[in-house]
Amino acid sequence: MGLYKRGSVWWMSFSYQGRQIRRSTETTDKKLAQRILDKVKGEIAEGKWFEKLPGEDRTFKEMMDKYMAEHSARNKAPKSHDRDKELAAHLNSFFGDYTLTEITPKNIYEYKVKRRDEGASPRTVNYELALMSHAFNLAIKEWEWISDNPVKKVSREKVNNLRERWLTFAEEERLLINSPKWLKELIIFSVETGLRQSEVLNLQWPQVDLFRKTITILEQKNMAKDVLPLNERALEVLKERAKMRHPNKNYVFYNKNGDPFKVSNLHRAFYSAVKRAGLNNLRWHDLRHTFATRLVQAGIDLYTVQKLGRWKEAKMIQRYAHHYPESLRRGVEILDMARKKFITILSQSEDASVEKDG
After folding, report:
1. pLDDT grade, residue 231 (50/70/90)?
2. Average pLDDT over residues 224-233
3. Which pLDDT score, from 0 to 100, does residue 13 have?
4. Exposure string (b/e) for 25-46, b if CB count within 10 Å is 16 or more?
5. What CATH number is attached to the domain comprising 311?
6. How does pLDDT run across 202-220, given as a tens digit for each residue?
7. Is residue 334 part of a domain?
8. Domain of 23?
9. Are both 70 and 108 inside the same structural domain?
């Protein structure tokens, strides 16, 4: 057992149950550090000392602040980091003052109930729990603050991935009437291109070719490029935006500072417009569903829809198949055509046989 320095702070080293333990005395005063070590020695001798992890004194907010500064900000893309900030804010409002060892599966369950009552979607709640769980894992494996992750013992919310909601043309008109001009442009462009929210908000002029009527989307994960055609309605939006290009920045859709609209501000304006329009159960992502549904209802084959919407797997587009039963009808009609062809060939064969016998 003994004392040693790390920087200006005194640390103590001692053996407990066959393991070497090193702990900070959290003081620069050697005499005080010695008294702390002597107290620990006495407690060990009397069987009263138990290994105490830093998490017993650390709050949840301290853990999340460390996670955001040392992991999220350094290792994640700016958009993902901003998303983490929003998720962490909800978590901190509930767990912020808890010490890490006070957090149990029971109060995590209570948090889920609270978020559902607030109207958070199952997917959002799951994102929040995933962030919380990741922070706990780092606190266990890398920071050695705690020894247990209570989030692992809590079930995730059930997400209905087959949820379907799209805008009828009448609903779209109502939504646009109740939207400010900047939001109206974003809604129209999203419905006519099927782009994801982040792709629309971060679209820049070098990606746009007004002459060829195309936009180029760069896939961040594999760096592939997709060149997509634009219809006239989407093109009109871009032509209007081109008249008011920011002098110093390249974003197509931007706020007063020339930067992309924040997701939180976009959602606030969008859901206010949805409410004024009297629409139910509509999310921003449903604009992408609207794009796909209208294509399928117009008779466009699923392969083309998949390519235009850049869905990675065919199964992701299969949900829209029922919107165009006539494409299935053509499939069964082929059976009739095959039978008619067989009967015709058989009839011709019989006629030829009769002529030969005659």
Report:
1. very high
2. 91
3. 83
4. beeeeeeebeebbeebeeebee
5. 1.10.443.10
6. 999 999 999 999 999 986 5
7. no
8. 2-51
9. yes
